[in-house]
Amino acid sequence: MPAPIKVLSIFGTRPEAIKMAPVVKALERYPEQIISKVAVTAQHREMLDQVLKLFQITPDHDLNIMAPEQTLYDVTSKALLGLKPVLEAERPDVVLVHGDTTTTFVASLAAYYQQIAVGHVEAGLRTHNKYSPFPEEMNRKLTGAIATLHFAPTSTSQQNLRQEGVSEDNIYITGNTVIDALLATVRPDYEFIDPALNKIDFKNREILLVTTHRRENLGEPMRQVYRALYTVLESRPQAEIIFPVHKNPAVRRVVSEVLGEHPRVHLVEPMDYEPFVNLMARATLVLTDSGGMQEEAPSLGKPVLVLRDTTERPEAVVAGTVKLVGTDAETIIRETLTLLEDRSAYDAMANAVNPYGDGKASERTVQAILHHFGRSEAKPEEFNPVK
């Protein structure tokens, strides 16, 4: 029997951990064929640890690089230098990275410097604007230029990679692993630790779940968003907002100024993954500038209004599960009220087919690794959202 394939999964933020956790668990199901190791940079610390605990993952290496007021320069240099001895010690056959964070790009670069193959989970997402989202778009493209294996969540992502010259043989359409994590975490009987959330009448009230954090939206764009939400509340007395507020002081200051005094606005601390997705499952609709929520919410039948002008997830726009509304107040007010007032418009978005996954992406990713390293003859069956 050939030696097991050594796979080192590297991630550093909560979103990466959520989407890589089901991959790590899938790798662990093949102990005779795969040696699975995990390294975290802890680009995020507390939020990362919450996910590791939920999915019962103990890293083999923890760089613990997070520092107060860290910059992209800090994260990049600390992660690159910190991963050098990890890679030298482990000498994996392949390094797995996810998505678009600074950890993702730096881990790919560190592996490249030691001529170690890179597998990119959630590969091929593009807005074709290198400053939107910033720095994620270039992190994706640079990682894609280094990677050998490309685990594309959709056929659109596959086509983006083809146009950049990636060989068809190295692209695997898997679906998105975030759906695997989501389906394993949402429960109808879930009870929130926060008593204020348990008191909310989710069945009879219109609950708007809101998140904002993008750098390009800081300042006046966010102020426009919050003013629009205030107007929506004044128009819909049965509406309430639940807003897990990002820890960035620039976000907190503006949201407190505009929405902080409204009696039907619940400003809460950033939530662990488990309560957050269970909250999303009970909300009426979602307004966000997050990327991952554009994939998660449609799986739960929740319309998403995206507070951005561009998206690296155009499949959802085409499918009708999300709509780009940007940060213009009038547009946000109009589109939000349409969904709250027009049941047919709401149902059209809520019942559209989610193009992102079926809960089997992690298994396809593992099968793709086995195929690439000659442990199986055929490529795994591609994810097809219409099946």
Automatic annotation (TrEMBL):
Domain of life: Bacteria
UniProt domain UDP-N-acetylglucosamine 2-epimerase: residue ranges: 33-369
Top-level class of the enzyme under EC nomenclature: isomerase
Keyword entries, A-Z: Isomerase
Stored SUPFAM superfamilies: UDP-Glycosyltransferase/glycogen phosphorylase
EC number, UniProt record: 5.1.3.14
GO molecular function list: UDP-N-acetylglucosamine 2-epimerase activity
InterPro entries linked to this entry: UDP_GlcNAc_Epimerase_2_dom, WecB-like
One Pfam family from the record: Epimerase_2
Similarity-based family: Belongs to the UDP-N-acetylglucosamine 2-epimerase family.
Full protein name: UDP-N-acetylglucosamine 2-epimerase (non-hydrolyzing)
Organism: Heliobacterium chlorum
